[in-house]
Amino acid sequence: MEFEEKWTMHGLAESDPGCRKSVDELKTLILGCGFLPLFRNAVPGFSVEEIVSSRYWWSGDAAADPWEWRMILAEDADIAYGKLFNGASGFISKDWFPYFAQLKRDGYDSDSAAEEGLLNRRLVKLMGAFKSGGEIIFSNVLKNETCLGGAFETALGMAQNKSFLICHSFAQRINRQGMPYGWHVARYCVPELKFGRDAVRSRYDMPADDAREAVFSQVRHNFRAEEGALKKLFK
Predict the structure, then answer these.
(1) Is the pTM of this model over 0.90?
(2) 93, 30 in Cβ contact below 8 A?
(3) Are strands 180-189 and 88-93 parallel, antiparallel or unpaired?
(4) What is the rounded CA–CA span in Å between residue 192 and residue 164?
(5) Which end of the chain is more exposed for a tag (fewer CB within 10 A), N or C?
(6) Dist CA 191 CA 32 (whole Å)
(7) Could you report the per-residue pLDDT of 25-76, keeping only the tens digit for each?
(8) What is residue 1's predicted lDDT score, i.e. its pLDDT?
(9) Using an 8 Å Cβ cutoff, are 60 and 27 in contact?
(10) Contact 155, 126 (CB under 8 A)
């Protein structure tokens, strides 16, 4: 006998006063707490999934669907979106991104990290596509340019987790007639392009351990979080 696996979303009732019902309400929360993963994780309550209704996911209704909201917030000037939480997707505010950059980079940008031998070959190849810092590249184009094949998704996730890349926006591809077609596809850029080089690197003078503790303390201030869960989430 075969059993179909069911993915259960853990959300709030729409009547719950804590339930966020719009992308503007979600943005306010993200800016208030500084950063927030998209889906449930080891820290109870610390996700978009747990503070919205489970009813509208993947409905395609931009007014109510949190999956659609991620595309809207990816383009917001005050928020970064991507696989920023140990391979899991989520949001970080512009004010808090420098702490993450220092926590993950420890004062190195991708070029200097590569020169010091701190990045693997695949990550060096991926980041080479963003050599000028001004590129905004569709994920499918990036995969073709880097020729990483089956290792592409792993390298892309690692680049985001290290805060070297973020999702700039989602857009449809353009056919030969200049018309958009198909599903919306993620486009990537370096965070310095969105927030500015000085802003992203403004905590480079802070020890990485201090940046980590600042992030941990911010989560503890808003949620009940065990040390082990925090270390795993912000690895």
Answers:
(1) yes
(2) yes
(3) unpaired
(4) 9
(5) N
(6) 20
(7) 999 999 999 999 999 999 999 999 999 999 999 999 999 999 999 999 999 9
(8) 44
(9) no
(10) yes
Q: Count CA atoms within 13 Å of residue 56 on its CB side.
A: 23
| H helix intervals, the chain | 23-33, 66-74, 97-105, 110-115, 121-127, 139-146, 152-161, 191-195, 197-200, 208-222, 227-233
Where exactly are the structural domains of the chain?
A: 23-233
Q: What is the edge-to-edge ordering of all strands in the sheet holding 137-138?
A: 35-37, 88-93, 79-85, 166-174, 180-189, 137-138
Stronger pLDDT, 76 or 181, i.e. the higher one: 76
64: closest CA among 75, 77, 53? Answer: 53
Longest dimension (CA), the chain: 59
Tell me what the mean pLDDT of segment 1-10 comes to.
Answer: 63
| Phi/psi-derived region of residue 92, left when phi > 0, alpha when psi is between -120 and 50, beta in every other case | beta
Closest residue by Cα to residue 192 from 74, 93, 92, 109:
109
